[in-house]
Amino acid sequence: WTTSPNATHYLVYMKKPGSAEYKKVGKTKDTSYIVEGFKKGKKYSFKVKAVATLNNVTKESPLSTAKSCKLRETPAKVKGIKLFVSDLKGADLAMQWDEAKGAKSYVVYIKQAGESYWTNYGSTANIKCSLKRLDYSKKYFIKIYSRSSGNVLGPASKTITVTPDSYLKKNRDRLLASKVRGIRYYGDKKDD
Predict the structure, then answer these.
(1) Rounded Cα distance, 115 and 111, in Å
(2) Cβ(36)–Cβ(14) under 8 Å?
(3) How far apart are CA 37 and CA 14, in angstroms?
(4) Which of 7, 58, 132, 174 is 20 to 30 A (C-alpha) from 28?
(5) Where are the alpha helices (DSSP H) in the chain?
(6) What pLDDT, in 10s, does the model give residues 4-38?
(7) Do 50 and 7 form a contact (C-beta atoms < 8 A)?
(8) DSSP state, 30?
(9) CA-CA distance, 100 to 44, in Å (whole number)?
């Protein structure tokens, strides 16, 4: 959905198949929200409400117009997530994962320790992602969703927990050794 002026967060409501009532399923600071547990071929409807808090006074907008959908074939769950260094200095952390069947792209969500909201960190058509934009001194929870060409998300991956600075300090030598072993030589070999 589009941003609502002055909104501090949004409440998401869902109506299940056969139900006449919308029930709150979550809240988010983003203008998108992931809902899981759908059954294929069933119709689900959604509404969103904007919430603004100013000077300890909270106001809610009316519910939005309903948006309905039926779940189509979902891509497989992302597995095999691994952290690695993306440069030979060992300063930048990244992650990669196994290709998920049926996925055309992947969406990465993060949550900083102490926060109640998951944030959309970004999407990629590749099976790896840099973590450069994180504050390396903070602890994060990270999960990845596969996404089909029809924009249907698969189930969430296993949640990865990492404090980048601590992880790099503890594992830098091992990670760099792996990086160096991965170097290959191409071309004609010449004697010095």
Answers:
(1) 6
(2) no
(3) 12
(4) 132
(5) 164-181
(6) 988 999 999 999 988 999 999 999 999 999 888 77
(7) yes
(8) S
(9) 25
